């Protein structure tokens, strides 16, 4: 991966999306932010489940759509999973304690990340999931910062067969 070139992968079914998330989770360093975007039903929460597994978190990960945020702890790590689907503006972000969540998380994974544009950490990974027909999904990863570029380089090297 050179500079800010995106890394693209194809997955098949929930298992493929989970496995790609798990691979990403194994390379995440603390603290770090991953943003997920894509239409309803594309597999954002499935990817979060995989990331949690890659981090060694054994709790059952569920969507925080109505609670906005869920935290999972295991092995001295804390995964903060946020769903911004119901967020409309900056005041809504403030009402859920966005800044504190960003500052206190070990690993922060945010669904509907585009709703927090302009309020993101300096270094993060943007993942766009797209339905590509049948069970196939396309996942495009973009780095925003030095650490994210390193993580994506490791991910690309480990997932050569998924490209």
Reconstruct the topology from this structure.
Elements: E1 7-12, H1 13-27, E2 32-37, H2 44-55, E3 69-74, E4 77-83, H3 90-95, H4 98-104, E5 107-111, E6 124-131, E7 136-144, H5 146-158
Parallel strand pairs: 2-5, 2-6, 4-5
Antiparallel strand pairs: 1-7, 3-4, 6-7
Helix pairs in contact: 1-2
Describe it.
By secondary structure, this protein is of the alpha/beta class. It has a single domain, classed as P-loop containing nucleotide triphosphate hydrolases (Rossmann fold, 3-Layer(aba) Sandwich), CATH 3.40.50. Helix content is 33%, strand content 29%. The chain is built from 5 helices and 7 strands. Strands 1-7-6-2-5-4-3 form a 7-stranded mixed β-sheet. Strand 6 and strand 7 form a beta hairpin. Helix 1 packs across helix 2. It is globular. The relative contact order is 0.25.
Which keywords apply here?
163 residues; Rossmann fold; alpha/beta; seven-stranded mixed sheet; 29% strand; single chain
